[in-house]
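Form 7-S
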Amino acid sequence: MIRTHFTKLLLAGAAALMATGAFAEGIGASLLTQQHPFYISLASAMTAEAKAENLPLEIAIANQDLNKQLADVEDFITKGVSVIIISPVDSTGVKSAIAKAQKAGIKVITVDVPAKGVEVTSHVGTDNYTGGVKAGELMAKQIGDKGNVAVIDYPTVQSVVDRVEGFKKAIAAHPDIKIVSIQTGITRPEALAAAQNILQRTPTSS
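Output:
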């Protein structure tokens, strides 16, 4: 239900932006991945909602590859879409592509992951810092306010950076809990390898 409302809000905003332009050439969406349940649901819901509202929509999947995402945005610019929806692979790395789209008169909406260093027309997302705080509080409760924990990070994505900062803030309120390692795991295989490495080095990690 939350994802349905999320998608309705996202596409309603895109449709409104299309209506304000001289031309309505459609919406191009560049999503970060299709390897995560959230993004699978998002792509599916966007497709269904666009069909229901008769909105022209093309979705490209970046597969967590910045170069692929930049090429997809370039393709949308060439096609002359009215609106680009993007969940950045790299919050800073998409800056130039967003600026180029805006220079071409295309409205840009970021979804889930904000962009850094560039203004966008709108951002649709959640409060990731607060989400991280809540995750940290839940972790502390689950391990009885004592133990070692580790974090798998995605430092080029601002939403994850915010989430990790919130988590660290919550854990800091529990002096008997120690964050013993923070390692990068962008893809699932990388995250699995990082987790295995952490467990081998610190087998008491919770």
